[in-house]
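Hi L.,

You mentioned the student needs an example of a multi-chain input paired with its predicted structure. This one should do, with 228 residues in total across all chains.
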Amino acid sequence: VVMTQSPVSLPVTLGQPASISCRSSQSLLSSDGNTYLNWFQQRPGQSPRRLIYKVSNWDSGVPDRFSGSGSGTDFTLKISRVEAEDVGVYYCMQGTHWPYTFGQGTKLEIK
Amino acid sequence: EVQLVESGGGLVEPGGSLRLSCAASGFTFSNYVMHWVRQAPGKGLEYVSGINGNGDDTYYIESVRGRSTISRDNSKNTVYLQMSSLRVEDTAVYYCVKKDTGTYLDWGQGTQVTVSS
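Structure written out for the whole complex:
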């Protein structure tokens, strides 16, 4: 399954919202009724950190300015007000079809 | 707390070999499929190989199949990736990852593999 993110680069002013799109080449609705779409943040020099799982569920410690939405093949990660610590690369990943696959990443930077 | 600690990376010439290790703690290791995911310099994330809980089922992406062997020692809570006939394009940070249903939550810090003459 091919995961396609846009944009590739995302310059944002501090305090402004940001949005990242992720599209899959096949529906991510699993036969068990779940949609295994995840979002990861990778800060410079760090391992990826999961932010969101099953489309819209926050991981522990993730600020509520992050939100995930979508269904089927179209998904979105939104940041309501970008902060300096949000700089990094964001990846979507599907876990419905084998093998798991990642989007190419969206680099968020402060304008 | 889940911990995954990789080791074994380094600089190797094309055609050489390396064995990566990942020591796990904080969970019942034998109950989980373990994966290796890599990230080439300035690039995205790519699943490389996986192994089921008792080690009798393994998976590889096409580009490493035949050159790599994944294994595990549940008595040592460790998963390995033996890589041979290494190519320049294998240069990457290799992450050990614990597979959960439909997701990866826990990642190691990564180990750098550089293939260069």
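You could point out the following to them. Residues 20 and 77 of chain A are 5 Å apart (CA to CA). The mean pLDDT of chain A is 96.

Best wishes,
N.
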